[in-house]
């Protein structure tokens, strides 16, 4: 069920998505609220689950992660037990940034990040060995990110 948000809430969420390091005073100024009113709104949005955390956006290239792959995974079974086992195993692999349960040709789509070809080879072998119930893996190398998620269209 979608939360009911007024225009000030939407403006506040947009401002946070642009730069969550702003002070409460700066955010309040940006949306036309006092610091105390802005703080109350933020706390209410957190309590209602509209804000699920605050994160730093790291530069993968500068940190040595120069390769990104999208990996389609097909399982031998789509039973609840098989899906649960796969999902539990994938959560323990730090190079897997995202894992999506899919409808279509692949059962799952993984977004993984690697330092180089050798790192990807190690990860690929590890995925085959560590992930239960894998029938097939199809890897796609990302050449360049055209648009990165910069926030929800609030």
Automatic annotation (TrEMBL):
Tagged with keyword Transcription regulation: yes
Domain of life: Bacteria
Gene3D superfamilies: 3.30.70.920, Winged helix-like DNA-binding domain superfamily/Winged helix DNA-binding domain (1.10.10.10)
One of the GO BP terms on file: regulation of DNA-templated transcription
Pfam families in UniProt: AsnC_trans_reg, HTH_AsnC-type
Annotated GO CC locations: cytosol
Keyword terms of this UniProt record: DNA-binding, Transcription, Transcription regulation
Residue ranges annotated for the HTH asnC-type domain, each copy included: 5-66
GO molecular-function term, one example from the UniProt record: sequence-specific DNA binding
Protein's UniProt name: AsnC family transcriptional regulator
Source species: Devosia pacifica
